[in-house]
Amino acid sequence: MKITTDGECRHVAIFGATGSIGRQSLDVADNLGARVDVLTAGSRDVEFEAICRRYKPRIAAMSNTDAASRLKTALADTDIKVYGGENGVESAAYEADADNAVIAISGMAASAPMMAAAKSCRRICMANKEAIVAAGQLLLAAIRDGGAELIPVDSEHSAIFQSLQAGRKEDVAKLILTASGGPFFGKKRAELEKITPADALAHPTWLMGPKITIDCAMMMNKGFEVIEAMHLFSMALDDIEVIVHRESVIHSMVEYRDGAVIAQLGAPDMRTAIQYAMTYPTRADGLAQRLDWRMAKSLTFYPPDTESFPLLALAYDAARRGGTYPAVMSAADEVAVGKFLRGELDFCDIFDVVIETTQKLGRSGDVTLDEIVNADREARVVAGELSDRIFAKRRGAV
Ligand code: NDP
Ligand code: MG
């Protein structure tokens, strides 16, 4: 494993480099003057080739084998080693040997590379949330066993991590996660029936990939983040609270036993959280726009509406039940959101598909990673069939 002093970031590996977090991580690496040694992507080889030509990593890997073969041919004039398939991405992680490995692969596919990177890299900068939601306890233990430290990248968890620097863990009373409330804040269920993908993709404060933007619009994302926080900070669920904060200026807070509340504030820009994960415990000049405190502004807070947005309550319930419940919920959500984005499901139908699949397939008790992967797979099939049935029924009714 590479030995460097804390906060130094000379070598970076970015897993999921073509994505929203991946590209912003490249901006941060540029800003820090770090060498990008290892890059991976899924299947978008044309975009990935351009990134590889610009950063000239030692290793480039793609999980899609056809895309990897095309990339290998395209990069034949370079010294870049190209690996293909899920094993190829995992091998790239074993060989990464970096100060910081940014895990920005979406979904459960991130779990094998993150465990491998924990063995070769000093620090895991964790953006992925689906794998942490589904198998947080097992994956965090594997990362610890691998010898790497883990710093969260998700903005709320970065804010909590930063706020935790102000006190001792045993003095923490509560974690308070802020939620923007998304574009449909204040709407009742009946008003949500006719929401289109374009409506749901218009997030008021954050610019993100489509899947996570829809999750935000449903408060499902906040449910995932509660589970992430429970695992990342070893907190009891009852001590994790969600509040709607429309302006997305306070990224989350920690309440200590004496009643003091410490928060992290800033512009809604993921590059701040990514950079902090790479430079902790030091800080470097940032890329985000500064907040102008001389401009009149107000910060507002509301309780979440779990009646109109039932998936937040479902997430608390799934976390309490444990076992495969969170994995099933997350997989069902991914399927249903994909269908909604393709116009094959209505917005409120996503709620029904996720709730019904979770209730039908979830199982409590101790589970292995293989059992979680199988539960994820099964949930996708069941959620897909359920979505198709609901959609066919709706079309029949028109
Ligand atoms: P994107 O969909 O934009 O990017 C996902 C990346 O993962 C792409 O590089 C993609 O490659 C790659 N990928 C997809 N499937 C596989 C696979 N099976 N094996 C290997 N690589 C794969 O996602 P985001 O950047 O938005 O999010 C990444 C993660 O970070 C998610 O878990 C998300 O929840 C989390 N997150 C995102 C935030 C945001 O602001 N976007 C905020 C907080 C957390 P390709 O392009 O080739 O398909
Ligand atoms: Mg977040």
SSE topology:
Blueprint: E1 11-15, H1 20-32, E2 35-41, H2 45-55, E3 59-62, H3 65-74, E4 81-84, H4 85-94, E5 100-103, H5 111-120, E6 123-126, H6 130-146, E7 149-152, H7 155-163, E8 172-179, H8 189-192, H9 197-201, H10 210-217, H11 220-232, E9 240-244, E10 250-256, E11 261-265, H12 270-279, H13 311-321, H14 325-341, H15 347-361, H16 369-397
Parallel strand pairs: 1-2, 1-5, 2-3, 3-4, 5-6, 6-7, 8-9
Antiparallel strand pairs: 8-10, 10-11
This protein binds NADPH dihydro-nicotinamide-adenine-dinucleotide phosphate and magnesium ion (MG).
The site of magnesium ion has 4 residues, from helix 7.
Can you characterise this structure?
The structure is a single chain. The protein has 398 residues and is an alpha/beta fold. The protein folds into two domains: 11-153, Rossmann fold, CATH 3.40.50.720; 158-392, RNA polymerase sigma factor, region 2, helix turn helix motif (Rna Polymerase Sigma Factor, Chain: A). It contains 16 helices and eleven strands. The longest helix has 29 residues, at 369-397. The protein is globular and about 60 Å long. The protein starts with 10 loop residues before the first strand and ends with a helix. NADPH dihydro-nicotinamide-adenine-dinucleotide phosphate (NDP) is lined by residues 16-22, 41-44, 63, 89, 104-107, 109, 127-130, 154, 208-209, 212, 270. NADPH dihydro-nicotinamide-adenine-dinucleotide phosphate is lined by residues 16-22, 41-44, 63, 89, 104-107, 109, 127-130, 154, 208-209, 212, 270.
